[in-house]
Design brief:
This protein has about 375 residues and is of the alpha+beta class. The chain is built from 7 helices and 20 strands. Helices cover about 20% and strands about 30% of the residues. The strands form 4 sheets. Strands 1, 13, 14, 15, 16, 17, 18, 19 and 20 form a 9-stranded antiparallel beta sheet that branches. Strands 3-4-5-10 form a 4-stranded antiparallel beta sheet, with no helix packed on it. A 4-stranded antiparallel beta sheet has the order 6-7-8-9, with no helix packed on it. α5 packs across α6.
């Protein structure tokens, strides 16, 4: 069913808060979530991460496998960020307790009578695809994690200081592209026109159709917080993008995306240049945050900021506030996908709160309404 009217409820949006005891937080934990880029974790490295207001430790063992575990040692509760990686295992630096990837305690070297069998470190299923490290934080068993062979040449992540759902709404709101991104690399996109917008629910989430004079473009939102887009440019390059919006807490989130182009050498060249430039920026989260704040504080106009779609989108969603006040909105027909996304989320959270099983949003073999050129 297509959504074309502007009716939307002003009920409190339950999808905003995602802590471990909230409905949306428990719901999101039933799905795999990207937590880091693969390249952000070297062999033998241990890092802290925060996902949906909960802390975890992630490490890459000496074989190369990534693992997500509890943030603290079950002995005396110290942070495992200081732990050592030994082979596939994690060794607490405080008293030398050693833990296998399964969480089993293997050694307690200072104990005259070890009681390893009584100790278990909490662990979480961990996988890597498309340049991302994914973790699963919900009740077992973990659902299958779909593969994404279309993307992976250029994975990226940056932190945005507002609620994650604002970015999720932004990605299905494609009408902003010809206005916000006309001074960016997207200026060559075939989406640089104002389309007729419609949205309809699918078995994986929803599809947004953007009808132009001679073409139909599409965005595919995969519940609960992924999006897949095919973006054609007038110079003959096609971008395949997968994006994910993962709460850090209720007022900040990580925006993940992974890109592959056709022809592929274009994307690889772009990634090589972008990675080189990013190396000069230092801490990317601080770099992005600095430019976003300069615009929102009135120090620089948006046109003076770096002409990056990532910065432009981030300025807009952060500009809505740490948590957007949706009660003051005036939505129109071009907001059809935003309206439908909220409708699906509210319905699914109500079902989940009532005890129904979470749907398995399997990655479809063929997306409907792919980008096509009309004759």
């Amino acid at each position: 069913m297509h959504v074309t009217d502007a009716h939307v409820t002003n009920a409190e949006p339950d999808f905003v808060t995602t802590g471990p005891t909230t409905v949306a937080g428990r719901y999101l934990r039933r799905y795999w979530q990207p937590v880091l880029l693969s390249r952000e974790l070297r062999r033998g490295q241990v890092r802290p991460i925060r996902v949906m207001s909960s802390d975890f430790t992630v490490y890459r063992d000496e074989v190369g496998a990534a693992h997500v575990v509890a943030p603290r040692c079950p002995h005396r509760g110290t942070s495992l960020v200081t732990a050592l990686v030994k082979g596939p295992d994690l060794v607490c630096h405080y008293h030398g307790w050693r833990f296998a990837p399964s969480g089993a305690c293997l050694e307690q070297p200072a104990e005259p009578r070890p009681f390893c069998h009584k100790v278990q470190l909490a662990t979480y299923p961990t996988r890597e695809i498309a340049g991302f490290i994914f973790g699963y934080f919900g009740e077992p068993p973990a659902p299958p994690l779909p593969e994404w062979p279309e993307v992976g040449d250029f994975p990226y992540r940056h932190r945005i200081e507002c609620n994650y759902f604002q970015s999720a709404e932004n990605v299905v709101d494609d009408v902003h592209v010809p206005f916000l991104h006309r001074d960016s690399v997207l200026s060559r996109s075939t989406r640089m026109v104002i389309p007729q917008v419609s949205a309809y629910e699918t078995d994986f989430g929803l599809t947004v159709e953007l009808r132009q004079a001679r073409s139909i473009e599409a965005n595919h939102f995969i519940m609960p917080n992924l999006c897949y887009v095919i973006d054609r440019h007038r110079d003959g390059v096609t971008f395949h993008l997968m994006m994910a919006y993962v709460p850090i807490d209720d007022t900040s989130h990580n925006h993940f995306f992974s890109i592959t182009t056709q022809p592929r050498f274009v994307g690889k060249a772009m990634a090589h240049i972008a990675n080189g430039l990013d190396a000069l920026k230092g801490d990317l989260d601080s770099w992005y945050g600095k430019h976003i704040r300069k615009v929102l504080d009135g120090v620089h106009p948006l046109r003076a900021a770096p002409h990056s779609p990532r910065i432009q989108d981030s300025v807009m969603v952060v500009g809505q506030g740490a948590i957007a006040d949706r009660k003051g909105e005036h939505l129109g027909q071009t907001d059809a996908a935003v309206i439908l996304l909220r409708k699906i989320w509210r319905r699914e959270l109500a079902r989940f709160a009532a005890g129904q099983a979470t749907p398995h949003y399997a990655r479809p073999n063929k997306f409907p309404a792919r980008t096509v050129l009309m004759t």
